Amino acid sequence: xxxxxxxxxxxxLKRSRNEDFFTCNDELGLYIVxxxxxxxxAGEIASSTAVSSIVExxxxxxxxxxxTWPIEANPNLSGMENALVAAIQLANQAVCDQASExxxxxxxxxxxxxxxxxxxxxxxxxxxxxxLYRLRGGRLEQLTCxxxxxxxxxxxxxxxxxxxxxxxxxxxxTRALGNRPTLEIxxxxxxxxxxxxxxxxxxxxSGMVCDEELQHILTENLGDLAKACREIxxxxxxxxGIDNVTAVIVSVQE
Length: 254
Ligand code: CA
Known about the structure:
Helix content is 34%, strand content 27%. The chain has helices at 42-63, 79-101, 149-155, 161-166, 203-206, 211-220, 225-238, and strands at residues 2-10, 20-25, 30-37, 109-110, 112-118, 121-127, 131-136, 139-142, 186-191, 197-201, 245-253. α1 (42-63) runs antiparallel to α2 (79-101). The chain is globular and about 45 Å long. The protein starts with a strand and ends with a strand. The structure holds calcium ion. Calcium ion binds next to α5.
C-alpha cells in the first residue's frame, strides 16, 4: 500500500490570524493537524512548536529505531502507537517550556490529531477537539472522540446534538497541550485498506461543515485531493467561516 496526501489551511472569514498548523509527510507516513490558542501570536507558536516537535521525534525514531526511549513505553500499545504518543508527550513538554520561558506565551496551548502509517496499519492519537475521519465504501466515520465540554455533556445525554452544535461553550476543550507537564492522550491502532481516505481537521471545519456535507465533498473528489481540500474549505466559509479551517486528506492506494 502507498499513501499520498494534500493539506490546506485557511484563516476563515472572521479571524485576523491563523492559529492552525498542519503537516503532510508522505515519506514518514505522518500527518498532523494542530489548533493553537493564546493571545499575542501565542496560538501559532503553540501549534507550530507542537507539530515540529512531533515530526522531529518521529524522524529521529525513523532514522534510528533503537534510540533510547524518552518516556516509559506502554506494553499494551504497538511500537508505532507508542512512538506517536511519546512524540506528543515531548511536544507537550516543548509547548510548556516555551510558555514558561516567555511571559507573552503564558496560557497558550494547542490541540493535536496525528496519524502515522506503518506496515499496512496506522497509529492515531489526539488531544482536544481536532478530529480524524475515515471514508470507506462511501461512508464517513469519525474515529476520534472530542475532548470538549459539549461532547462530555452529549455523551452524558445532558444536551442534544442540536444544542451541542450551537452551545456557547462549544469551543471549550477539556484537554490540550501546553497546560501541564502530564498529558492524557487517546491513541488507537487503525485498520487501513486500499481505497480508504482519511481526513484530519480542526474544529473550524467540523464545527462548520456537517458530516453529510464532508462525506459528499470527499466522495465527489476522490481523484483530486487538492480540489477536495479547496472544496471543503470553501464550504466551511460558505457556512460562516467563523474560525480557522484546516483539512489534511490522506488517500490509501494499492
Ligand atoms: Ca479552532
